[in-house]
Design brief:
single chain, alpha+beta, 13 helices, two-stranded antiparallel ribbon
């Protein structure tokens, strides 16, 4: 498995800071940290990891390196699905030809491009099995989003959403659950059709909530807001890996499949993004045998209990908002949650 995390760069007063070029100069050549769509965003990408402890170390290291470089540039590294304040150049694109092409093609989605997600890659070398996993993961996407909502504040106010990012990302034509495709060839034809019709600029620009990676032999699960803390991201990755393993077993055992209608999946995702609880207990029952097999049961169950006790990223953000309001204190609290104290 591997994880990509997207982050905001914010001034202490909460305004977005288009400081990615300056921060990148201070990173020190770490090629696992790179600019993102907006000049006030960074993305980190872990190497391939085989265990959650290894993943935690890599996520922690990358956040520390990026945060220290951001601090030297006079800004905060913040893990939030959306920028909390309407201050600063929210339309400041990174100087990349592909991003400029995206902005020209989809101008209504430009600000949505400045939201931050977490993408978990799970290795599946067999593309036919990977395509079948996409069909079977569809009804589980709302539960995965429920674990990871982390963008309740935007425009200097509580949006009323747990994932304002999800709401904003709907501006992209391909931001949707995967379809029910009988083969990898049918999946590829759908992607090609979307590119040819103008729904995406290329295969990497097809933003299904779970997709076959355009670069790696993986399934890429993209439904989540970026994790407020490393613990949040490790929990999402561990649950996703166990879920994919469970679905692969279903495929190999030819378990009966009654595909959930697309409109129901979309309705459930919207409900979760607005703040409804997901079916965590059902998800845990599904994945526990594979958590046991990987030795991850204790950590994942402890992570679920932590969310029950402390709240999701969205719930913790709301507590900070109630405490600090639209001040630098709120931004500082988010930054402190984002960056671990040590490896």
């Amino acid at each position: 498995m591997g994880v990509e995390e997207e982050f905001l760069l914010l001034h202490p007063d909460g305004a977005v800071a288009p400081a990615a070029p300056d921060v990148m100069r201070r990173v020190g050549g770490d090629d696992r940290i790179k600019p993102e769509y907006m000049a006030y965003q960074l993305e980190t990408a872990t190497p391939v990891c085989t265990g959650l402890s290894e993943l935690r170390r890599e996520l922690t290291r990358l956040r520390l390196v990026a945060a220290r470089a951001a601090e030297k540039a006079g800004v905060y590294l913040v893990a939030s699905g959306s920028a909390p304040f309407p201050a600063g150049p929210l339309d400041a694109l990174s100087p990349d030809d592909r991003y400029r092409k995206l902005a020209r093609r989809f101008p209504e989605a430009a600000v949505a491009g400045g939201t931050c997600g977490c993408h978990v890659h799970i290795g599946i070398p067999d593309r036919e099995i990977a395509a079948a996993v996409l069909t079977r993961i569809r009804p589980w996407l709302p539960a995965l989003l429920a674990l990871t909502v982390n963008s309740p504040v935007a425009g200097a106010g509580d949006t009323g959403w747990a994932s304002h990012r999800y709401r904003m990302q709907l501006s992209w034509p391909t931001f949707m659950p995967p379809g029910v495709w009988p083969s990898a060839e049918r999946y590829d034809r759908e992607v090609s059709s979307l590119v040819a019709s103008g729904g995406a600029v290329d295969a990497a620009g097809v933003y299904f909530l779970a997709r076959l990676s355009a670069r790696y032999p993986t399934i890429e699960v993209r439904v989540a807001d970026t994790g407020l803390s490393v613990d949040d991201t490790v929990l999402f990755a561990g649950v996703t890996r166990a879920l994919v393993a469970s679905l692969i077993e279903d495929i190999r055992q030819r378990a009966k499949l009654l595909p959930t209608p697309g409109h129901l999946v979309r309705e459930q995702l919207l409900a979760v993004a607005r703040g409804s609880a997901g079916e965590t207990a059902r998800l845990l029952a599904k994945i526990t045998p594979h958590l046991d097999e990987a030795g991850d049961t204790g950590e994942i169950y402890a992570g679920i209990e932590r969310l029950r006790r402390e709240g999701t990223g969205a719930e913790r953000q709301r507590r900070f908002w109630q405490q600090y309001g639209p001040t630098s204190g709120f931004v500082g609290a988010l930054a402190a949650e984002t960056v671990p104290l040590r490896l």
